[in-house]
Fold these 2 entries.
Entry 1:
Amino acid sequence: MLLLIPLLPFLGFLVDASFGRRLSKALSGAIACGAMAGSFAVSLVAVWRLVGQPEEAREITTRVFTWITSGDFTAGFTLRLDPLSAVMILIVTGIGLLIHIYSTAYMHEESDAEFARYFSYLNLFAAFMLVLVLGANFLVLFVGWEGVGLCSYLLIGFWYQKKSASDAGKKAFIVNRIGDFGFVLGVLLLFTRFGTIDFQEVARAAADLGPETGFGTISLITLLLFVGATGKSAQIPLYVWLPDAMEGPTPVSALIHAATMVTAGVYMIGRNAVLFSHAPETLTIVAIIGVLTALMAGTIGLVQNDIKRVLAYSTVSQLGYMFLAMGVGAYSAGIFHLYTHAFFKALLFLGSGAVIHALAGEQDLRRMGGLKHDLPITYWTFLIGALAIAGVPGLAGFFSKDEILYRTFASGHVLLWVVGLVTSLLTAIYMFRLVFLAFHGPSRPASAPHAGPSHAVSGTHGAHLHDAPPAMALALVVLAVGSVFAGYAGLPAILGGGNWFEHFLAPSFGVHEAEAAGEHGSEGLLMLVSIAVAAIGIGVAVYFFLKNRAAADRAAASAAGVHRLLENKYYVDEIYDAAIVQPIRIASEDGLWKVVDVRIIDGAVNGVAETVGGSGELIRRLQTGSVRTYAASLLLGVVFILGYYLWR
Amino acid sequence: MVALDHYLVLSGILFSIGTAGVFMRRNLITILLSIEIMLNAVNLTFVAFGRALGSADGQIIVFFVMTVAAAEAAVGLAIVIALFRHHESLNPESFASLKW
């Protein structure tokens, strides 16, 4: 049964990829959505069965076939459902299904063939992600891991005629490849250390060991795995591909940011929680990288003007939170944030997609404004998403983010907690900056030609801004509901909840997280602090971007240097270009191409030919054409041979 | 009584004469004749050994050699005629066009 979950989207991919060219849009879209819906239904049934099992032994394993057998090493194509992967498959198939439905409306202007191509990639993406989260060993996980990398490349570069899109696709692929290199090394090292690649066996073997002191093998293994995670989940230093991934269609961004791809790294660490728990050194690095990424991306997000880029940096920032949670050993809090984030980030992306759709491709925030009245559904759902991500009490993001911050504080990392809090402030500011710039304030001339006196001359161009069509509205509303209520699955004890989510996940992590019983006092206090921070953030945004925009411009002008630094994303792309891309280019061009290839390889081939030709030139002088010479050489030869045998 | 040695010496002399003819004459027909002399020198050796060893093998081989020689002479002369029609010459040095 588990096999059906990734297989259905894969079949959808096969059908759309093979026959999609000849199918109508309605049909190819229906096939893709149907495949996802089927997968979602099977997932629900599977999870239902899982929940029916006793709490400590919740597990369903299916060995599809034995893949590799070599000596005493066997690796099967094995799928395993446990609480962690149950959460993941529900996110992937559920959110994925909504994004599929949304896409049928969003991509409707493409031709039949392009439409089918788009949906085949989308299905393949979901299929690989499901393989990734269901895989019971590193090898199966790696299949999905590489598969989602491939699909992200295909989808980011979907509009491949556009150079920036195909470049962004390549960038995503190459940056991921760097991370994957670390990941593969980590898996190999892990195999030499433990002799197995099955998650459960590794966890069992690691559980017998004490926590590593200093930087030993396990620290190295986990650090290499973390390098892979930084690539997939867009952390420093490999986050650069994610903002550029905005070149793809907007639902793809939603899919990459919410349901698939970027969650892979967080999931992988959660999956190997036992291993990571035994490497405190690595955990510290994970936490620091996570919080730094959160802060850095948050600051960049403050000043970006592309609606999707702001969201992209917010994803990077939120992923930083998840890694912070992983780093302080609060695995279930990290996965909880992943789960709530999937709802509101998908919602925000799809909402921004609805805005872009309504404005016929306009993505620049400076050219939006006043859309509140024209796009009511989009506005209200988007607002819910923004409230959720900003950490307003009662919405999904509040519970998960607060859980992470509280766990960070409880584990004694006060500095990390402070940085996390600052990031939380930034999150509230940039999200509401986005909301106010796009939906409030005066209508900008380029965006809403119908509003105001220019209505009469608007002509064919956007005579009326249409709100999200039904398919898009459906996805938005469902996700908005999710963004409100998803958090209640993990209601902390202090608010009267049992933190059901954490209890459900606990068997998957196999480590007993620090129980924080009896510390409700500090938890309550910290909660109030985060609420205050969110309120301040929203207040700042209200002041600068709603009430007094001139003040925002003045503030930007008074700190022009910082503003420019942020606007150019800390010049990280430029630094990478100068430090890595250009040297490789130069070495390839002047070294590998002009020396190794032209001189050495071509030289060897041509040299052999010239040697043979030259010696032939010499030897052909023997062919005189004179019969007598030939006869003489014959005779001489016979005489020599006979002479040798006679006188030897 | 003529001993084996005498036959072999005569044969050697004939073979040398033939070889010398091949190298020194400038007429293709003479060269062919010289080759015939060489062949017959070898034939003589075969026969002489056959008699000395009391075996018929030598004589049998001689028949083969004579047959081959006859065929060779026929083909050789035909080639000579063809060459002569082409080049109006029987000097082997003038047939050196098949070279680099």
Entry 2:
Amino acid sequence: MILVLCDADDVAALWLVARLRAAGEQCLLVTSDLLSFARMRSQRIGRDGARALVRLDEVTVIETPDLVVNRMPAPPTAAWRHAAPAEREYATAELIAFVLSWLAGLQCPVRNRPEPECLAGPAPHDLLAAVQAHRAGLDCADASFGADVSPFPLLESALRAAGPGARPVHAVVLDGRILDPEGLARRAGAPLPARLADAVEGFAAAIGANRALIGIDFVVAGRWWFAGSTPLPDLPTAGDTLVRDLTRLSERVPA
Amino acid sequence: MSVIVWGVPTESPVALLIDALDRQGTDAVILHPRRFASQTVEVAFRSGAVVGSLRTEGRTIDLGDVTGVYVRCVEPELLPELSGLAPDHPERRHAASVYAALTAFTEAAPASSGCRVASRLSSMASNMSKPYQAQRIQTAGFDTPETLLTDDPDEAAAFLDAHPGAIFKSASGVRSVVREFDPAVDIERLGRIRWCPVQFQENVRGRDVRVHVVGDEAYAAIVDSDATDYRYARAQVGKDAELARFDLPDDLAERCIGLATSLDLPFAGVDLKLAHDGRVVCFEVNPSPGYPWYESEAGLPISDALARWLAAA
């Protein structure tokens, strides 16, 4: 069974669930709200390792999924929506702790395992992302991180460096591999630079995303300017390639 | 060359470090979170490198001359100077921009230039989930206590039956007093866990040892106390805990250093228990340890070690 965790309004995740089911996969969609009202959430950690059980209702139990696609950027706190602020803050911290531990302890492939600073997966600071992207061989424009900095400094600096007529494109990257590179080239209106695949693989490894499903933004105008990364990629842009590769992941016997 | 101390200088861990930097003749640039109005920080990515400068108390420092940063900062939203101000108030925005720029620098500088940071805020976050950290601790070769996180009262009751004297505490980084579960008092409250999983742990009997890792050095203190949570010994058993220097066996010191390294915490407080059954059990790794008590009571030269490490890049 493939488990997809997401917010209720995550259109990309809903698209993925529909495509996986159309491909014949048994796929369970669990929204953050559903997880917040689960009948039981439990995890044991001991000398034998970790094991967990989440019971959503009388019949639906999550224990040993074959694959988890995690797109939850925030903990499941819907049940605490109307609590007093101090109670809600404490519960939020405790639920972050639970989700982080639960998904870290699952034996199956999880894309993405949560990081302590982001439940949805690898999300390095933009400045660190720029340093690692440059080191990996991606083109990175100069950017400022001082006073009144933009919320998207890498995208803005890439657009500035690329100049008029540049085209922003989004690459979906699974385990360091660009999915559907032909489609990406089509959207960019330009062939992929020869070294791009290796650079993307190096970048993913440097930010701890060599076993992760991430998105990388580029601004293309002759050069492919790195414009940031996200643990919440726009999944439909990778199309059937993504569905096929995730299905293969779910069939792998964990080491 | 300079070391940035990003914290409140009257707070004891910060004060001890400033004294230690002074003793070793290192220029300490103190960034007091409450004095944001006199601070300006510019950080940029230029030609593949992190560059910038900071201005504080009339001084200007090139960030390229900074060998290390000690991070014990206060988030702008917690500063009393800003309480009651609108979100877009210029003072609030300025404080936020200083905080954001320093965060950017401390996150990226180790990878960019080898500047030493104790510790990056993102790395400190592993302590936000003790059970998550426990799994990382196991990977580093330590035992951890048998632990149950659950929102099911029946499952909790069964665990408590199987582990007499079990304790409960927060699973997150929110500070809580570790307490033994007392069936006479607490059994009625078990039903309240229904809406949020609570962490229960076997009560490991033995001696507490706190190991402070500084780079590739380890300084340990052993604790003498009957309290469940020795930090609150006076409240729990009416007598303060006593601390003494502890000679850590080499293999244990190496495991502690390896654990802190694996968590990207060059300065860390590792909580161990030398269990009566022979196990060495690790409870958690504190990412920003409050070390002065251990330094003063057990005579551990932690602030000197930290000052040396920060200046050595």
